[in-house]
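Rather than argue in generalities, we reproduce a single protein record, letters for residues, whole numbers for local backbone shapes, just as it appears below:
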Amino acid sequence: MRVSLVTGGGRGIGRAIACSLAGPDTLVIVAGRTRSFLDSTALELEGLGGRALAVEMDVTSGASVERAIKEAGGVAAHIDVLVNNAGVGGGENIAGSDTARWRTTIETNLIGTYLVSRSVVPLMRTGGRIVNLSSVLGRFGVPGYTAYCASKHGVIGFTRALALELADQGITVNALCPGWVDTEMATQGMQIGAEAMGITVEAFRDKALGAVPIKRIIQPEEVAELVCFLASPTASAITGQTYNICGGQTMD
């Protein structure tokens, strides 16, 4: 049985990834903070023909991560695929910024990726796959997003180092950098941007997507398909790489 763990798996990109990894002879563990979202996702996964387990996990807490992995270990002795998807968005100018909010962003997006990986790696076997979700803001800077950009740049550095560390174990580690994806987080980001610019959300959306060469928002399922490829046996020679899925926003 192939066992996958997806953090932030209750909704958005995480839910789409969990569904893409589900199917006969699979167990997909969805982890997150909101039980209702997790249970809903787990029910959908079971409808796809596989097994599912919902575990509550706060990725910023080492104790919470360890409890969740222990719970998962009671059902599966190994984990084949880890997708570090849990994250938070938002931004603010650095002058007068909230230090606690800055720390929360770093702790969720970057330290959370470390804490979950640290707990899962001992459960992985040769052929294991780790996919970390960064962002196009891990490729370039945006004014007012110092914490988010720092955290997502950090995920890429973490990915490269861990890939080298685990190469001799036959475990690959790669990262994805999505652009605007059709999720609740993107909607909130557009609302914040619209308020900051003093324009409507619709006007901000048009402006934001107008800057994307393909002129449209990305669907969560498109990100999920790329995760599935990197988690597959076909991708065994790919490690330490970062893939943009951003409609051409960046080509670095």
Notes: The CA atoms of residues 136 and 177 lie 5 Å apart. The longest helix spans residues 99-120.
